[in-house]
Amino acid sequence: MNNKRRSDLQRLSSQLEQILSELEAIQGDEENSRDSTPENLWNTERYEQSEMACDSLGEAVDGLSSVIENISDTIG
Which residues, other chains included, contact 67 with Cβ-Cβ below 8 Å and sequence gap of 6+? Predict the structure, then answer.
């Protein structure tokens, strides 16, 4: 890999790490919101939507982490 492509990948990796950090913060906020829901509201549609959002955000975090790791492996 030439230096230009390596540099481009390093730049993109840094941007993705920033996005990952923001995504993790949003995930944490959603989890805190869900976890603070009173027990009597656990079977509501709103709670289920929050739970689905937490799951989806977790998958997005995992996927983006894998992308960053793959880029890191590529540029050495």
Answer: 16
Beta strands (DSSP E) in 1-76 are: none
Mean predicted lDDT score pLDDT of the chain: 97
- Alpha carbon distances (Å) from 19 to 22, 26, 49, 67: 5, 11, 23, 12
Residue count of the chain, please give it. Answer: 76
76: pLDDT strictly greater than 90:
no
Rounded to whole angstroms, how far apart are CA atoms 19 and 41?
A: 32
Run of H or E including 66: helix 45-75
Short-list 70, 30, 71, 68, CA closest to 51: 30
pLDDT at 42 over 90: yes
What are the pLDDT digits (tens) for 49-67?
Answer: 999 999 999 999 999 999 9
